[in-house]
Automatic annotation (TrEMBL), chain B:
<dbReference type="InterPro" id="IPR009078">
    <property type="entry name" value="Ferritin-like_SF"/>
</dbReference>
<protein>
    <submittedName>
        <fullName>Ferritin-like domain-containing protein</fullName>
    </submittedName>
</protein>
<dbReference type="Pfam" id="PF13668">
    <property type="entry name" value="Ferritin_2"/>
</dbReference>
């Protein structure tokens, strides 16, 4: 089976019978149709062996979850997004207000370097297996507004925690699981800090994180599968992300 | 309610979960029906008993039982530490604000939820409960004023939370491929949120700044808490090389100083080190082995 392009960008394409028959069994289709989200091209499962990676017109980044590299590239993609956001905050000279304005500015700079460190770490660790640089889209964020920046920062950090917690069990190598663990708790510290400056005491308001998989009654933090995380992040990412073998 | 998510997550690491559950379909059905009316507070217990039914106690590997009981010991300690700070008659410090007391209550409630969750998951394999009388949060006099001085209380709290984060991280590898890994990770990051807030409470209560993340100490030492007695809590937190990559200045970014590199990655702590720390706060005869 050879195919020029297996990318299925929309549900209507997914449902196109000829393509559907060629690429994916009904069971897989049903499995993936529910996971579809705007901005993300979900590539049907089962075709990875035949995929034409050499297609010169193919653009975007492919996250292949068949092994740990896929999970690490997924983390790399999210760290790219977070780093780009905090760099943009710094370059926009967002005016923080209040008696703790200076501390907020300093801590946002701290977080910026943490996220750059995470991004560069994954880039170095993945080497030639690393996906390329993602193009971001922060048009929905008003970087002149402290409230807008804080709200976006909270969304990024909570989503980051959910992403690492949800992806951890996919890792097959203890070393990588530990590295993910070293990073996720730093993201959780960020999340708690940003939440507290938005509303003091909301550092671990798990009820507000139910949609991200948290459970307050059991004291459990957010955890989401990659498809759900990427759907939530898609409005901030211009680069088409292809997900396979999820 | 994310019971369905939990089952989906288990399915990823244990593709046979539904088959395991299948012979007990009646039990599952009654569980789901019960789930509709059961109070949220009772959910952890119900969840735990369902896992027991699905896996059976004898099939929960002893290594996983050990990890969960170890985590349970720490959760009991944390719970009693905060619960006593809220209810103990010998507590003489006052919370500076209502928000401070609310935050401690929130944390106490999470630790209780973790205890209940772990007890439920372990079933009859759960360790003997730790009672407040089994604890010694004054640590034999090292923190004699833990319940009379708010700043000391917060300093010890920070030590507990940062230790908790490190302890769960240190055990993650032992849960590789286990259906309880996801749950352990979800507890782990909640502890990190607690640590972040306690550090901010310490900053608010005094004149010293404690970053929400673990940084380098004032003299460049691994312990940034300002409390030398808890050096063991931070041993090795100043690691700057991750999987062979030097994080300081990585990618040519000079802004990533040693402190930034240390802050960017939280380090695990092995079980023996955590046990040594935990035993400081347990009465003789009640210490962990």
């Amino acid at each position: 089976m050879t195919m020029k392009n297996n990318e299925l960008e929309t549900k209507s394409e997914l449902q196109e019978k000829s393509l559907f028959d060629k690429t994916v069994g009904r069971r897989s289709f049903l499995q993936y149709a529910g996971a579809g989200a705007a901005g993300i091209a979900l590539v049907a499962a089962g075709c990875s062996k035949d995929r034409g990676y050499d297609n010169p017109t193919m653009s975007g980044a492919t996250l292949d979850f068949k092994d740990d590299f896929g999970v690490l590239n997924y983390a790399y993609a999210l760290e790219q997004l977070e780093a780009a956001f905090y760099i943009k905050v710094a370059n926009s000279n967002t005016q923080f207000t209040g008696t703790n304005a200076a501390a907020k500015k300093a801590y946002f700079q701290d977080i910026q370097f943490h996220e750059i460190a995470h991004r560069e770490f994954f880039k170095a660790a993945l080497g030639t297996a690393a996906i390329g640089s993602l193009e971001v889209d922060f048009s929905s964020i008003d970087f002149t507004s402290e409230a807008s920046v804080l709200s976006a920062a909270m969304a990024f950090e909570d989503l980051g925690v959910a992403a690492y917690n949800g992806a951890g069990p996919r890792l097959k190598t203890g070393t990588y699981l530990l590295l993910a663990g070293k990073i996720v708790s730093v993201e959780a510290r960020h999340a708690a800090y940003v939440r507290d400056i938005i509303s003091n005491g909301s550092f671990a308001d798990l009820n507000s994180l139910t949609s991200l998989g948290a459970n307050n009654a059991s004291g459990l933090d957010a955890a989401l599968t990659p498809d759900k995380v990427l759907a939530a992040a898609s409005k901030y990412i211009k680069t088409k992300i292809n997900v396979i073998n999820l | 309610m994310n019971i369905i998510n939990i089952l989906e997550e288990i399915e990823k690491v244990d593709g046979e979960v539904y088959e395991r559950l299948n012979p007990r379909r009646a039990a599952m059905k009654s569980f789901f029906n019960m789930g509709k009316k059961i109070s949220l507070a009772a959910m952890p217990l119900a969840l735990g008993s369902m896992f027991q039914k699905a896996y059976g106690q004898s099939t929960l590997p002893s290594g996983v039982v050990d990890v969960l009981n170890f985590a349970l010991s720490l959760e009991y300690l944390e719970y009693h530490f905060y619960n006593h700070a809220l209810l103990g008659t010998d507590v003489t410090f006052t919370y500076p604000t209502a928000a401070a007391k609310t935050a401690i209550t929130t944390i106490r409630d999470h630790e209780k939820a973790h205890v209940d969750l772990l007890v439920g998951a372990l079933g009859s394999s759960a360790r003997t409960p730790i009672a407040y009388a089994d604890t010694d949060f004054r640590a034999g006099g090292t923190f004699a004023n833990v319940y009379t001085d708010y700043n000391t209380f917060l300093a010890v709290a920070q030590g507990f939370e940062d230790t908790g984060v490190r302890a769960y991280k240190g055990q993650a590898g032992n849960l590789l491929g286990s259906p309880v890994l996801q749950t352990a990770l979800q507890i782990h990051s909640v502890e990190a949120r607690h640590a972040s807030h306690i550090r901010q409470m310490r900053t608010a209560a005094g004149s010293t700044v404690y970053k929400p993340w673990v940084s380098l100490g004032a003299s460049g030492q691994a312990n940034d808490s300002g409390v030398a007695a808890v050096d063991a809590v931070y041993a090795g937190e100043d690691l700057t090389v991750q999987a062979g990559a030097n994080i300081v200045g990585i990618g040519g970014f000079s802004g990533i100083t040693k402190a930034a590199a240390v802050e960017s990655f939280d380090e695990p702590l092995d079980k023996a080190s955590v046990v040594t720390i935990a035993n400081l706060f347990l009465q003789p005869g009640k210490k962990l082995s």
